Amino acid sequence: MRKFLALAILLAIIVLPAAAQLRAINPDSAVTTKHQVNIKGQRVPYTATTGTQPVWGEDGKTIAGLFYTYYERSDVKDRAVRPLVISFNGGPGSASVWMHIAYTGPRLLQIDDEGYPIQPYGIRENPESILDIADIVFVNPVNTGYSRMAEGVDKDKLKEKFFGVNADVKYLAEWINTFVSRKGRWASPKYLIGESYGTTRVSGLALELQNSQWMYLNGVILVSPTELGIKREGPVEAALRLPYFAATAWYHNKLPQDLQQKDLTDMLPEVEAFTVNELLPAIAKGGFLEEAERKAIAGKMARYAGISEQSIQQHNLDVPLNFFWKELLRDQGYTVGRLDSRYKGIDRQDAGERPDFNAELTAWLHAFTPAINMYLRDELKYKTDVKYNMFGPVRPWDNSNDRTGENLRQAMAQNPYLHVMIQSGYYDGACDYFNAKYSMWQLDPSGRLKDRLSYKAYRSGHMMYLRKEDLVKGNEDIRAFIRASLPKKGQPAMY
User: Fold this and answer.
1) CATH, residue 186
2) Domain count for the chain
3) Residue 395: what pLDDT?
4) Which of 357, 381, 401 is the last residue of a domain?
5) Which of 9-13, 148-152, 277-281 has the lowest mean pLDDT?
6) Please, which pLDDT band fits residue 157 given cuts at 50, 70 and 90?
7) Whole-angstrom Cα distance, residue 186 to residue 238?
């Protein structure tokens, strides 16, 4: 018995570290494969490099390895004029999977034309990919995708280096510098694209890259942007939700007939004008708003939001998002999605103040998770036993001193080449389209940069590209943005 126990202990000493290594990521690795894709009727050859690149600590030792996928068109002779797009998703804690295999990359997951999961799961060509005009790298911050802190480091002590608005920006800027140097892309026009919290990330990176890495960009694309540190508490926050409510109510046929029969984009300007000119001042008056005016405002809100005047009065004109998602289709036994309110969910009971779950997110995870795991292993040949984190552990996240909107403004002011485009879905309740407009308005109070700021809206939600029509339109808008922001040969960066 003692011999057996001793043998078991010896085996554990030998085998367990080896098994643990199977679950550890190599912080500096690369696998390159060759492919082709048909984009807009044109056959585009490219290489895909999938791997990890280190993050180094102050002592020069590796403290993490970031997982990335880099697509490079292979028939390009002069990379000095070839744009490079650096892509991030958000969360924080989300992998780069979403835009990677559903928007700009050369492969597209199998979903229906409105973005719902279908089986069998899989990947197909993306005929709308921007790889025809730009190379793309999809980056996964620490604990997302296959990115991890290095083995042997004190992970608790290192959290503050990764998990916060400003820490995130700082280490990613260093990582981008190394990536650009390794790939020989210093001469290339460079673009950042971020989605959701990724817009906070790339807005901060725009200035950090200039000030700390001396790397200047041509463009930043904000997909479904966050608040970017631009404050909007109180009456502003409460009022700005209404246009999103109206768009969602229109989609679900909950508006009065005179509004419902209008097209979405013909109806919304009326709601936006009411929001800015009447609702915001009314909420600002609080309890001193005259009762007759309160009733009139609540009546108009009910007309636009598709919910009862009584429920609006009960919330003192400040209708919470969770309540709206629960209330709009309560009489039909459904909730509506947070990130995309076209999606419907079913709760345990119709009563309550908030949905039981996010109907849209469960559908997306249903479609994306099998697709990315199959794609990376089978087509891109990246083999590992490490789990691909769709969402990874990054909490607590330090949100203090978020000045990313101001950082982006300052980067634009310092760099006359730098252009910014915002893309928003009308049915996004998490980063809604009217708040995105408000961010753009407040980004440059002087109005002197507005010729380099543009805004595009789409008839879908947070990931507007999941709808086929908006996949086409969104990528075309990116192409047009890149072309417009490339300076003519010899054009100086000057005012």
Assistant:
1) 3.40.50.1820
2) 2
3) 93
4) 357
5) 9-13
6) confident
7) 45
